[in-house]
Amino acid sequence: MEEQIRIGIVGYGNLGKGVELAIKQCEDMQLVAIFSRRKPESLGIFDKTIPVLPISKAKEYQDKIDVMILCGGSARDLPEQGPFFAKFFNTVDSFDTHAKIPQYFEAVNQAATAHGKTSIISVGWDPGLFSLLRTISEAILPDGKTYTFWGKGVSQGHSDAIRRIEGVKAGIQYTIPSNEAITLVRKGERPNLTISDKHQRECFVVAEDGADKAKIESAIKTMPDYFLDYKTTVHFISETEFKEKHSQMPHGGFVIRSGQTNGNNNQLVEFSLKLSSNPEFTASVLTAYARAAYRLKQEGQIGAKTVLDIAPVYLAKKPVTTLRSEL
Amino acid sequence: MEEQIRIGIVGYGNLGKGVELAIKQCEDMQLVAIFSRRKPESLGIFDKTIPVLPISKAKEYQDKIDVMILCGGSARDLPEQGPFFAKFFNTVDSFDTHAKIPQYFEAVNQAATAHGKTSIISVGWDPGLFSLLRTISEAILPDGKTYTFWGKGVSQGHSDAIRRIEGVKAGIQYTIPSNEAITLVRKGERPNLTISDKHQRECFVVAEDGADKAKIESAIKTMPDYFLDYKTTVHFISETEFKEKHSQMPHGGFVIRSGQTNGNNNQLVEFSLKLSSNPEFTASVLTAYARAAYRLKQEGQIGAKTVLDIAPVYLAKKPVTTLRSEL
Prior knowledge:
Oligomer: homodimer
Strand order of the largest sheet of chain A: 3-2-1-4-5-6-14
Number of strands of chain A: 14
Structural class of chain A: alpha/beta
Radius of gyration of chain A: 22 Å
């Protein structure tokens, strides 16, 4: 049997759990250890035989792990963990604070380059696969416009905002791409669209007993930045229905490049995702890029990379000759 | 001003014309010469200042052209031209005889490697972008099925078959992806579908005066391999309508990967193209990959490549730091 790529997971929230599941689908990979700040018993990991260790012990695994998949958050975990782990391991992460990507890239690149490691940052679907599709389709159709729509999916920030309103017991918000806007773009019309033209917001709320529902609905719909500029609908439901129907984490979206070749012909490139579980899909993307990080390092291609630097062959388990025969 | 990438075109049919148009949209490129077997006057090229030369003169342009875009056909031109031009130039081509790609790759690779050139073969959308999307989405969702649908678009082979029937003056065939099949796949059902389950065939026919239309329709619908297994519709139209409405070359298609992550969640990745002009779009893809061929050669990455070997950064005109800040 071929040797397996040895993977470690840092951070075991929804994303880390997803990576554990994704590795099980990859015969060429093996999960060696999970590193977490929390107590092993509290994590609920799927495979109880996997050692769970405090993050401080990670360094001891330098020779036992080929790629460390960093599953912490972009706000507080990764700015520190990214450059730190890049000194000891090849890494993959899903850093997604758009405005800070160049500075995060520099920090990780410095650490990885100095220590001969390969790190792929900002992996996932946006940033990630969507970035890749935007770059490729803009290169092919330089005269055109790119549209990104998000949803249908849960927005954590908007759900939190609903839950802070007086009288709300539970609440969730789905961002929904506007069908009218998508239809217009697919027709090749290339309209100018704001983010609120492109999206609607649908809220499901469980009200406290005796709460004023009209007041809650108005508080949501008039909330500046979050809801005011959007077509927003509010549904009041029972706590039972809420638990039954709204505990999943679906998401998705569309990237559409609408362009024109020089003979005045409209050309449309569309990429879309419809995900029943956002964290499990993002984890699957990270896992595929872990394979790429391992191979790039083997080839001596060290330093920080993004998805734009990775040729598709590095992601696939299949050998390149097979891929070529299946082109 | 930065130096432009100097491009040559070999073969000036619909694809070559499309490349001439595509280069006009790329400020970083310049068309140096067109090589053709036909007489310059007969080509109808857009920019009359571009020199048109016989293919035998191409070698004299070794120092004047950075990348040669080979626009000949896969059946008769490329098997010879691909390995030949790879000795003298970096090349890009759209070789699309699926079964022969590995052997074509070897021939071009040998020539390019021996002469220190970079050649990207089988560029376009299928093989090409569709191959890229199939490879990436299968790597991310190893447990799943991939579906490719073609259309709505003109099939040259099927149109020719119609025109060979007695009593047919003109005819065209559109391959149409089955909505029922696409809907089923998008639901995440992962059915087993044959190529005839996935596609329907729509024919527009101009009959000769006095021809037996019922007989023509039956001849089409019962033609083995081409139409028999498909849901086929035949419309008889006038020659005027035929010329007005059926002189375009639209095409397109869908690649859908329907997979399941290990938590039993359905995940759907979809890529689609809706093209008003198939040759102009394919030409735009070739032109973007010419930029990649030029840069790879500059980096010393020689030999034959396919789209699977090319990282997205090589396609974009924008510098990598800009791309990264726009992730």
